[in-house]
């Protein structure tokens, strides 16, 4: 075969394609044992302790790590006299591998076992998790005690791959390109405050009195929302002018906004699924005789598009959808009673 500048166009194409394949297959099955060794060393931050766990000599562990670093093309550890420390690149790789190996072990356990088991990672906005999901979760745990439930909360978008999330619950308009999604339950919103606050500010059936009130806002009601988005939605539908230059306090969750209303700090926009328990007990009231407002934002279940849905996810989806139906039915009856 001719080399250098004398390579034919076809040979250059073949050479380039082989280089491309080499880049795309940096890791293959021959490197799995080295990756596993890296996980032990990264978790324990010690070649000696990793060697003890793997029944190897420290030099064998060091050799595997050196070989892996050479193959990857970057350093995984800073070596000091009596300790090691992950490099920035090593931390990134460890984070990904730890989640990946955990999911592999979980799947193998499921396949080998005769019962539903393994871990299930659920991501939710804090308000939905704390006010709606957690009070119901004991029922699922009692039915499926071998399924390990891990709840993670945040206002950001879930990273399904990096965080190994199996299912997310969002308050959203329902647009999730590239994912499976299903509406869990519809939501309705309404102003809420304490009875004492409503009487003090002459709010009972007088929405025009909102001008003298402090409005409480969930500043992160949904992705890319304005800080007062929910109040704007409610006022527009009710054909009420949102008070200009009104006093306001903002929060990063609907739950915090509702709790502030409980403490007599002002009037919040409450989501019926999340505040109904406080309305039922009289801790909060809705000062106006308006039916709770339906909007285009609801609660959605979102999960990756998978060729195979693990049984533990299937049973959780069935359970949570049943809970959603029961909660929605209860809110429907509340909405009817609120206008009577």
Automatic annotation (TrEMBL):
InterPro entries per record: LysR-type_TF_proteobact-type, LysR_HTH_N, LysR_subst-bd, WH-like_DNA-bd_sf, WH_DNA-bd_sf
| Keyword terms of this UniProt record | DNA-binding, Transcription, Transcription regulation
Q: What NCBIfam families does this protein map onto?
A: PRK10086.1
Supply one GO molecular-function term.
sequence-specific DNA binding
One biological process term from GO is: DNA-templated transcription
Which Gene3D superfamilies does this UniProt record tie to the protein?
Periplasmic binding protein-like II, Winged helix-like DNA-binding domain superfamily/Winged helix DNA-binding domain
Q: What is the lineage of its organism?
A: Bacteria, Pseudomonadati, Pseudomonadota, Gammaproteobacteria, Pseudomonadales
Q: Where in this chain does the entry annotate a coiled-coil region? A: none
Where does the source fall among the domains of life?
A: Bacteria
Family designation: Belongs to the LysR transcriptional regulatory family.
Q: Which intervals hold domain HTH lysR-type?
A: 35-87
Give the originating organism: Entomomonas moraniae
What is the name listed in the Swiss-Prot or TrEMBL entry for this protein?
DNA-binding transcriptional regulator DsdC
**Cross-referenced SUPFAM superfamilies:** Periplasmic binding protein-like II, Winged helix' DNA-binding domain
């Amino acid at each position: 075969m001719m080399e250098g500048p004398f390579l034919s166009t076809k040979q250059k194409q073949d050479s380039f394609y082989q280089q491309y394949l080499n880049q795309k297959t940096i890791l293959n099955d021959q490197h799995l044992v080295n990756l596993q060794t890296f996980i032990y060393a990264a978790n324990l931050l010690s070649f000696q302790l990793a060697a003890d766990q793997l029944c190897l000599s420290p030099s064998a562990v060091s050799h595997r790590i050196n070989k892996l670093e050479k193959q990857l093309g970057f350093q995984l550890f800073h070596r000091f006299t009596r300790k090691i420390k992950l490099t920035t690149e090593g931390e990134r790789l460890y984070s990904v591998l730890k989640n990946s190996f955990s999911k592999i072990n979980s799947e193998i356990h499921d396949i080998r076992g005769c019962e539903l088991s393994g871990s299930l990672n659920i991501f939710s906005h804090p308000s939905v998790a704390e006010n709606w999901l957690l009070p119901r979760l004991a029922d699922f745990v009692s039915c499926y005690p071998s399924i390990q439930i891990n709840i993670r909360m945040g206002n950001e978008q879930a990273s399904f791959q990096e965080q190994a999330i199996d299912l997310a619950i969002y308050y959203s308009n329902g647009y999730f390109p590239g994912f499976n999604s299903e509406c869990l339950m519809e939501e309705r919103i309404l102003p809420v405050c304490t009875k004492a606050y409503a009487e003090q500010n002459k709010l009972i059936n007088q929405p025009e009195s909102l001008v003298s009130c402090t409005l409480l806002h969930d500043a992160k009601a949904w992705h890319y929302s304005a800080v007062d988005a929910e109040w704007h939605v409610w006022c527009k539908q009710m054909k009420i002018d949102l008070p200009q230059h009104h006093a306001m306090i903002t929060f990063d969750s609907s739950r915090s906004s509702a709790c502030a209303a409980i403490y007599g700090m002002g009037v919040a926009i409450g989501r019926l699924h999340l505040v109904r328990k406080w309305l039922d007990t009289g801790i909060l009231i809705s000062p106006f005789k308006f039916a709770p407002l339906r909007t285009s934002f609801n609660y959605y279940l979102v999960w990756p598009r998978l060729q195979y849905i693990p049984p533990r996810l299937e049973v959780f989806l069935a359970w949570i959808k049943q809970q959603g139906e029961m909660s929605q039915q209860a809110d429907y009856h509340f909405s009817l009673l609120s206008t009577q």
